[in-house]
């Protein structure tokens, strides 16, 4: 199995609310590195992941949107497709809030993002959905 080095916030390295700058490596906390296994989800079978067991689901859902370069096309028709998919796959859903997306563009000489962030705290999601 492949392994990778992941950096986590050292919970003993700060007081108060932790903060970090996005474009420069400046934070109120230290990081600690940990080696973790990285698995190819496809080997486990994508149908084995669900919101009930993994906190996310993986679905094959071809889209009418092909380019993903026009913000209006993503926010309009594509968001509608995603909402319809979620309502179909997750019975009982009463509200769908899509609060963020990033259109990736290749820029000559540009560096990749310094940090990846995927998790959202429930209170942050609620605040963005209410906006």
UniProtKB/TrEMBL annotation:
Q: What is this protein called?
A: Uncharacterized protein
Similarity remark: Belongs to the asaB hydroxylase/desaturase family.
Chain segments carrying region Disordered: 110-131
Give a GO molecular function annotation for the protein: oxidoreductase activity
Q: Which domain of life is it from?
A: Eukaryota
Spell out the PANTHER family in the cross-references.
Answer: 7ALPHA-CEPHEM-METHOXYLASE P8 CHAIN RELATED PROTEIN, BLL6449 PROTEIN
Where do Low complexity bias regions lie?
Answer: 110-119
InterPro entries xrefs: AsaB-like
* Ranges annotated as biased composition (Basic and acidic residues): 120-131
